[in-house]
């Protein structure tokens, strides 16, 4: 369909261009869900993937720690009861707390040995001097062993059977339906399913939004077993039932015939972590309390809501590293951010990292890790993307420097101490959570091999750092930014700016769309003239500020993918314009009494509540120029952008907009050695294969809903498969599904 044909009818424009945008979540008002670009003609709450994975779902004080139900179990073997402070049995252990760099601290059982150095330089030297041994089972080339493919979050497969020359022949090999799906019309909240399948132990493992684990045969899709924890199916911290998958661990030398030498883990929204035998699906009696650890036992400060376990654990050696999702924009003082390290076999606590100092917790919180994490397995370093502190859009009562908030931080895997940290936003008042795992890759630069870390961001920058030291490989400069005009607020005078690699979103917002403005009889241009706009870091204001990019990003929670041999890095991104408005407390309370609540968020007892709206005209059309989503490739050796193409298609009521307009996306790409990019992510319910060299679409297939997850690429019995979880997300389209679909070349 051409622009000329679209322009022939304003009625058609109103129908076809209504774009349901939303934050591509922090899995934002939920911390693991970015507040979304509003979805016109829909009553769905704006999801977000932020500080937790929050959603705009009002206050749920009943979800506080004290009201959490006791865990259920699986059919036949139900774990029961609540775990204690260490492993679910016995008395809570005595804890010790030790300060670490940046104002954070590490808490551990008193009998745990403390190792590592307080000095970042010494710790780095130790890591380099004493190389670690990666888990052999995780390094096998034919597997997809973690959420991001491997611990380095490269999202890369060495598979070569499917190539740019034959990918057009790709066919559906099998599909499976879990039955765990809800469109929100019945008793259950709607489902948001963005689980990446794992292929390991000759099995495909999948977690569902009802928190079940399904084990499938990788070549046929036939179910081997299903584990059902009988979890509470309530949207306690998110606007939806959400799950991003499972984690897997196995012993270095599994003992034949002994149970739970291989374990699959799944978390729930009410903070229960289950561990089951990977071969049988039966709960592991030695893990926590008969297969369950209640992680909410460590939610002891500002426990407004449970520590939702929506992102699968990161597994390294015999340790599980857990972040958690919460509920954004509702409270000022909220649960403070922690990363929790548990023994993979017993579930006992090893250590807890706290990103915020104790002295500020009476007025702030979060700065948690709701996205996935990455690990350098040879250096024993855990890289955590730390989110923004609460309240998200007003910092007048949290003016202390909080250097670990909105950062990428490297922790010692043995003890949780900070090795180095790089703050990406100072005094964050935009909800610019660090929302994706950094990608680890060695790059060739100036004749040297450099251990690099590539961090994507909501603000549109791509930070390339030395992963041993945190020092920039490409320059980061402090640039002056606009002042806040809100009484009591003190915006940081400068913010880090990255010019190379070129940002995925430009410095200036795209400007008013002529088509949307015409349909709105000048509405878009009139409103734009009345909003505050001073560039990328325009602070929230009382009159309303144009936010570009807003909390939706930029690049969302999936992050990017890299070809480690060529150093080519690929990331998809969104171009969304939202309006940030601060509302004085008395005015907000009056609006609440009058029933005007849509788009408003309390921010606890801060002087200002907050209103978020996507910049749409009366017909639900974006007031800004497209494209609305792109995908780009960068050469990490030079920092040069190789290509940048519109990606996906906007869909509404069965109609598709031109490909040149692109689509808002949720999800991330995967790269193969043969030079392909596999990705779902777009709102048009298609999965695609792109040419890594050019960005050209070489193959696409229609699936049941938007595939808002990363695919798993694996080889089984010599044959390459690509599996997508097709769960949908009402942020993109009012369509959800329970489909698992696998593609392969014909025999």
Key descriptive features of the protein:
6-stranded antiparallel sheet, mainly beta, 747 residues, 5-stranded mixed sheet, 46 strands
Low-confidence stretches: 1-30, 32-90, 114-129
How many angstroms does the end-to-end distance come to? Answer: 36 Å
β content, as a range?
25-35%
Oligomer: single chain
Q: What shape does the CA trace take?
A: globular
Question: Which class do the helix and strand fractions yield?
Answer: mainly beta
Strand order of the largest sheet: 3-4-20-19-18-17
Number of helical segments?
6
The residue fraction in helices comes out at under 10%
Give the integer mean of the pLDDT values: 87
Number of strands: 46
Record the SSE blueprint.
Elements: H1 3-6, H2 10-16, E1 30-31, E2 53-54, E3 95-99, E4 105-109, H3 120-129, E5 156-157, E6 171-177, E7 191-193, E8 198-200, E9 203-207, E10 213-216, E11 223-227, E12 241-243, E13 247-250, E14 262-267, E15 272-277, E16 292-294, E17 314-316, E18 319-322, E19 338-343, E20 349-354, E21 374-376, E22 381-386, E23 407-412, E24 418-423, E25 439-445, E26 448-455, E27 463-466, E28 477-480, E29 494-497, H4 514-519, H5 523-530, E30 545-547, E31 561-563, E32 568-574, E33 578-584, H6 585-593, E34 600-601, E35 608-614, E36 629-635, E37 640-646, E38 651-652, E39 655-656, E40 670-672, E41 676-679, E42 686-691, E43 697-702, E44 712-716, E45 719-726, E46 739-744
Parallel strand pairs: 5-40, 7-12
Antiparallel strand pairs: 1-2, 3-4, 4-20, 6-46, 8-9, 9-10, 10-11, 13-14, 14-15, 15-16, 17-18, 18-19, 19-20, 21-22, 22-23, 23-24, 25-26, 26-27, 28-29, 30-33, 31-32, 32-36, 33-35, 34-35, 36-37, 38-39, 40-41, 41-42, 42-43, 44-45, 45-46
């Amino acid at each position: 369909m051409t622009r000329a044909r679209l322009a022939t009818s304003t009625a058609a424009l109103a129908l076809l261009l209504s774009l349901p945008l939303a934050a591509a979540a922090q899995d934002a008002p939920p911390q693991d869900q970015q507040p979304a670009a509003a979805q016109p003609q829909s009553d769905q709450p704006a999801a977000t993937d932020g500080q937790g994975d929050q959603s705009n779902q009002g206050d749920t004080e009943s979800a506080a720690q004290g009201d959490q139900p006791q865990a259920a179990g699986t059919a036949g073997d139900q774990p029961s009861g609540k775990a204690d402070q260490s492993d679910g049995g016995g008395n809570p252990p005595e804890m010790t707390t030790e300060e670490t760099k940046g104002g954070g601290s590490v808490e551990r059982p008193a009998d745990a040995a403390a190792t590592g150095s307080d000095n970042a330089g010494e710790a780095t030297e130790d890591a380099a001097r004493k190389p670690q041994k990666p888990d052999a089972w995780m390094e096998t080339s034919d597997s997809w062993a973690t959420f991001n493919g491997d611990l380095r979050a490269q999202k890369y497969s060495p598979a070569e059977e499917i190539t740019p020359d034959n990918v057009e022949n790709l066919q559906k090999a099998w599909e499976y339906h879990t039955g765990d799906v809800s469109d929100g019309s019945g008793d259950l909240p709607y489902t948001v399913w963005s689980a990446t399948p794992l292929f390991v132990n000759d099995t495909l493992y999948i977690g569902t939004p009802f928190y079940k684990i399904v084990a499938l045969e990788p070549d046929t899709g036939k179910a081997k077993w299903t584990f059902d924890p009988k979890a509470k199916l309530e949207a306690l911290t998110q606007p939806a039932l959400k799950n991003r998958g499972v984690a897997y661990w196995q012993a270095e030398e599994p003992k034949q015939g002994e149970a739970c030498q291989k374990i699959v883990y799944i978390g729930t929204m009410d903070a229960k972590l289950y561990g089951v035998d990977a071969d049988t699906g039966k709960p592991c009696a030695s893990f926590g309390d008969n297969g369950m650890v209640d992680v909410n036992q460590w939610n002891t400060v500002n426990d407004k809501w449970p520590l939702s376990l929506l992102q699968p654990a990161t597994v390294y050696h015999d340790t599980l590293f857990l972040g958690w999702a919460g509920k954004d924009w509702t409270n000022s003082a909220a649960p403070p951010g922690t990363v929790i390290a548990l023994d993979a076999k017993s579930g006992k606590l090893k250590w807890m990292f706290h990103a915020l100092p104790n002295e500020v917790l009476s007025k702030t919180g979060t700065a948690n890790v709701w996205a996935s994490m990455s690990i350098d397995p040879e250096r024993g370093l855990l890289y955590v993307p730390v989110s923004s502190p609460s309240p998200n859009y007003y910092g007048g009562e949290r003016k202390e420097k909080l250097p670990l908030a909105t950062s990428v931080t490297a922790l010692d895997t043995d003890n949780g101490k900070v090795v180095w940290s790089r703050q990406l936003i100072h005094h964050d008042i935009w909800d610019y959570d660090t929302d994706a795992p950094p990608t680890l890759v060695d790059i060739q630069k100036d004749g040297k091999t450099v251990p690099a870390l590539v961090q994507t961001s909501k603000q549109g920058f791509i930070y390339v750092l030395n992963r041993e030291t945190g020092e920039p490989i490409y320059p980061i400069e402090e640039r002056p930014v606009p002042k806040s005009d809100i009484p009591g607020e003190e915006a940081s005078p400068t913010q880090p700016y990255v010019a190379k690699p070129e940002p995925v979103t430009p410095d200036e917002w795209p400007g008013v769309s002529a088509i949307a403005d015409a349909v709105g009889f000048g509405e878009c241009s009139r409103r734009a003239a009345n909003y505050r706009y001073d560039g990328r870091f325009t602070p929230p204001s009382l009159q309303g500020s144009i936010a570009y990019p807003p909390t939706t990003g930029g690049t969302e929670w999936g992050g990017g993918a890299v070809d480690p041999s060529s150093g080519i890095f690929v990331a998809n991104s969104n171009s969304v314009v939202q309006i940030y408005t601060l509302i004085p407390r008395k005015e907000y309370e009056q609006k609440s009494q009058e029933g005007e609540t849509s788009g408003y968020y309390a921010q606890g007892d801060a002087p200002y509540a907050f209103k978020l709206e996507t910049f749409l005209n009366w017909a639900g059309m974006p007031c800004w120029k497209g494209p609305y989503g792109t995908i780009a490739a960068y050469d990490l050796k030079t920092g040069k952008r190789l290509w940048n193409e519109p990606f996906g298609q906007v869909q509404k009521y069965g109609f598709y907009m031109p490909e040149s307009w692109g689509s808002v996306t949720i999800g991330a790409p995967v790269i193969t050695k043969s030079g392909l990019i596999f990705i779902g992510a777009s709102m048009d319910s298609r999965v695609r294969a792109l040419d890594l060299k050019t960005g050209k679409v070489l193959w696409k297939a229609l699936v049941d809903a938007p595939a808002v997850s990363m695919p798993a690429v694996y080889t089984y019995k010599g044959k390459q498969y690509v599996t997508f979880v097709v769960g949908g997300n009402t942020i993109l389209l009012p369509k959800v599904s329970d489909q698992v679909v696998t593609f392969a070349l014909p025999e």
